[in-house]
Recover the amino acids of this structure.
């Protein structure tokens, strides 16, 4: 069974950094793209960053380009989001995600809270 478990959220001042990690189990991690989404209170969930199965291509939301970096370690089945120069508008619940074709469904982690104070 696919499971995604996030860690690394917390409270940080504006301009600070946080590193989120997602540990994946239950599927052949190296074969599938992985994403980080976030959801702020009262707003829709949005895609923050995506990394393809090999790690050779990444995409970012315009709002985080140049500040966030997504990476993966296929040997350890982990995906990481390094967040620098954090802003109060980065506050929200951050979710690890993958779409798993064998089950024809999305899988989400439980989320980790990021709060950036001004």
């Amino acid at each position: 069974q696919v499971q995604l478990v996030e860690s690394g959220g917390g409270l940080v001042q504006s301009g600070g950094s946080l590193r989120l990690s997602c540990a994946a189990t239950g599927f052949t991690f190296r074969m599938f793209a992985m994403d980080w989404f976030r959801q702020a209170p009262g707003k829709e969930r949005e895609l923050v960053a995506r990394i393809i199965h090999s790690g050779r291509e990444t995409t970012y939301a315009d709002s985080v380009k140049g500040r966030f970096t997504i990476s993966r370690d296929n040997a350890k089945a982990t995906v990481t989001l390094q967040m620098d120069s954090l802003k109060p508008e980065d506050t929200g619940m951050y979710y690890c995600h993958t779409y798993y074709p064998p089950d024809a469904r999305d899988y989400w982690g439980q989320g980790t809270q990021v709060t950036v104070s001004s």
The CA atoms of residues 17 and 86 lie 6 Å apart.
